[in-house]
Amino acid sequence: MSETHSERGARPKAQPAAAPQRRSNFLAESYAELKKVEWPGQAQVIQGTVVVLIACLVVGVFLYVNDIVWKHVVSKVFLGQ
User: Fold this and answer.
1) Are 40 and 48 in contact (CB under 8 A)?
2) Quick one: pLDDT at residue 3?
3) C-alpha span between 75 and 81 (Å, rounded)
4) What is the mean pLDDT of residues 38-51?
5) Which residue ranges make up each domain of the chain?
6) Max CA distance (Å), the chain
7) DSSP 8-state secondary structure symbol assigned to residue 13
8) What are the backbone angles phi and psi of residue 37, rounded to the nearest 5°?
9) Which pLDDT belongs to residue 78?
């Protein structure tokens, strides 16, 4: 009962899938999903853009103020200048 390695753990060879068939199937499914999407209107896009710009401005100001404060803290406390 001497089994060889290839007989014991042998896996069936995978059949090569037809690449053009898979690609066209993927494209067809993707197109079907895109038709289901509820696309935002112009007002929603503008509102979202304004929200993002305001958030960037707030975070930028916050980081700038923190940078200024910590620069002074480090120079006065840690460097003794």
Assistant:
1) yes
2) 54
3) 6
4) 97
5) 40-81
6) 84
7) P
8) -70, 140
9) 82
- Which residues, other chains included, contact 6 with Cβ-Cβ below 8 Å and sequence gap of 6+? none
Handedness of CA 29, 32, 38, 43 (dihedral sign): positive
Unique residue bearing structure tokens 């112009």: 42
For residues 23 and 17, give the distance between their C-alpha atoms in angstroms, rounded to a whole number.
Answer: 10
What are φ and ψ of residue 47, in 5° steps? Answer: -60, -45
Number of residues that make up the chain: 81
Read off the pLDDT of residues 48-72 as tens digits, 9 standing for 90 and up: 999 999 999 999 999 999 999 999 9
Say if residues 81 and 75 touch (Cβ distance below 8 Å): yes
So what's the pLDDT on residue 43?
A: 97
What pLDDT, on a 0 to 100 scale, did the predictor assign at position 80?
A: 78
C-alpha 17: how far from chain center: 29
